[in-house]
Amino acid sequence: MFGFRLAAERKRLKLKQQQLADLLKVSRSAVGMIETDQSSLGAERLLELGAHGFDVLKVLTGEPGVTAAGRLLNWELSLAISDRVDAWARSRDITLTPEKKAIIVKHLYLKFASQEQIDEVALSETLFMAA
Fold first, then answer.
1. Global model pTM greater than 0.70
2. Torsion region of 96: left, alpha or beta (phi above 0 gives left; psi -120 to 50 gives alpha)
3. How many helices and strands (H and E) does the chain possess?
């Protein structure tokens, strides 16, 4: 199944097996073996493919990377951060453009995601700098 998805992703990128072989620094027949699940592909090589436009999550899961990543997002935390940014802006009578709000929320989410909670000090500092 992995090999089939890798082949589909290669075709989506309009690459021939030889071009993929060149990227991976393997023979075309090695690519054929990987695409028919007769051989495997290491994580390091998958990351390399990602750097060349391959949707690695789609190759691994069969689901587009954007969809798979959305499943991993802590939506409750994201919405809580968004609400806090809105409340902060209202309390200061500031109008944030949707683009600026998105950047702030994304930055804060990435900062708080590993803790799965909002750090009040970091939130205040970030919003102060954003003002």
1. no
2. beta
3. 9, 0
